[in-house]
Amino acid sequence: MALHKITIEKNQVNVSRNVYIQDTNGLPLTGLTFNSAGLVCYYKRAATDAKTALTLVTLASETAAWASGGFIEIDAVNLPGVYRLDFANAIMVTGIDAAIIVLSGAATMTPTTIDIELLNTLNVNAGVIEANPVQIGGDAQSLADLKDFADEGYDPVTNKIQGVVLVDTTATNSDMRGTDGANTTIPDNTTINAIAGYLDTEMTAVLLATQTTIPNLIAALNNVAPGDILTTQLTESYAALNAIPTLSQLLFEVRALLAEHSTTDVTKTVNQLDGTTPAATYTYDDAANPTAISRTT
User: Fold this and answer.
1) pLDDT value at position 206?
2) Where are the beta strands (DSSP E) in the chain?
C-alpha cells in the first residue's frame, strides 16, 4: 500500500496533490484514467462519519484548473506512477483534525492512502503570522491582569493572573534555609578600605611578576651558553636501585665503576668521590670466571 501523509489548513479550498500509485509488485502503475475499470475513490472524515465517494473526473492537463475529483496521469515515461488528484472541498471543512482518502480497485493496483492532518488556520500578513494583542486564550481580562502584574507588581487583590494562585509573604519565614548563621553586619569603611588596600598590593605583586620577574627568568634560561653547562659543577648523587637515573646520577655511577671500586668474592662495591662511602654494590655470577654482573644495592 502506498501511503501519503500531508497537512492542510482547515477550510482550505481547491486543493490538488500529486499521489504515487503502485502495482501489486511494488512498481509504478501507469496508464490509469478517471474511468479505469474498477477504480474508485473514497474519503472519510471523523471516525463516526460515513465514508463518502469522491467521483473521479478527467482533467484537460496536469496544469488544468481544480475540479472536485479531478484525476489525471502526469507523465507515464518521466514520472511513472504519479497522478494528480483534486480533493473535494468538503474534506477540509472545519470541525475535525484529520481525514483519509483511499484510491483503489483498478487491475493490479495497490490501494493508495492519503492521510491528511487538518491544521487550524493561521492569519498570515505579508509572510508574518498575526497574533491577537488584546487576548490570551480568547480572554481579554487575562491579558489585562498580566499587564497590571508587569506594570505595578503583585497585589493579591487586583494584580493577579487568572488561574494562578499567589500567596502573600508571611511576616516570619521559618521554613527558609540557606541563610542560617549568616553575617548580617554591614562592613565599616575602615574594613572595606583595608580589604581594598590588600587587594591592590596583591594585584601589584602579580602584575610585577607577570611583567618583570617571569620574563626575566625566561630570558635568563634562553641566554644559557653551552660552555656554561660544561663548566658548571654537578651535585653528587646516585639513583636508587632499579630507579631511572638523571643524567648527572648516571655520570657519577659510571665514574665510580671506572675509578672508585673494590671486589670481594662475587661482590663489587663502588664508592663515592670520597673513595670510602659506598655508592652501590654489584654481584658477579661467578667469582673465578664471571660472565655477568648486576646491581644489588
Assistant:
1) 81
2) 2-9, 16-20, 40-44, 52-53, 57-58, 70-75, 79-86, 98-104, 112-119, 124-125, 128-129, 261-264, 267-271, 278-284, 293-295
* CA nearest neighbour of 55 among 39, 78, 77: 39
Q: In this structure, are residues 109 and 29 in contact, taking their beta carbons and an 8 Å threshold? A: yes
Please state, in angstroms and rounded to a whole number, the distance separating the CA atoms of residues 263 and 181.
75
Show the cell assigned to 280. 652501590
Longest Cα–Cα distance in the chain: 119
| Other CB atoms within 10 A of residue 279 CB | 23
Q: Which 3 state secondary structure label does DSSP give 150? A: helix
Question: What letter does residue 29 receive in the DSSP assignment?
Answer: P
Taken as a whole, the chain contains a residue count of 297
pLDDT at 122: 72
Backbone angles phi, psi at 16, to 5 degrees: -125, 140
Cell numbers 500531508: residue = 6
Instruction: Evaluate whether 59 touches 121 at the Cβ level (below 8 Å).
Output: no
Over residues 112-144, the pLDDT tens digits come to: 999 999 998 777 677 776 666 665 555 665 666
Q: Name all domains of the chain by residue range, CATH numbers in brackets.
A: 2-119 (2.60.40), 247-295 (no CATH)
Rounded to whole angstroms, the Cα distance separating 53 from 284 reads 107
Which position has the grid cell 501507469?
30
CA distance 178 to 162: 32
pLDDT exceeds cutoff 70 at 171: no
Whole-angstrom Cα distance, residue 23 to residue 25?
A: 5
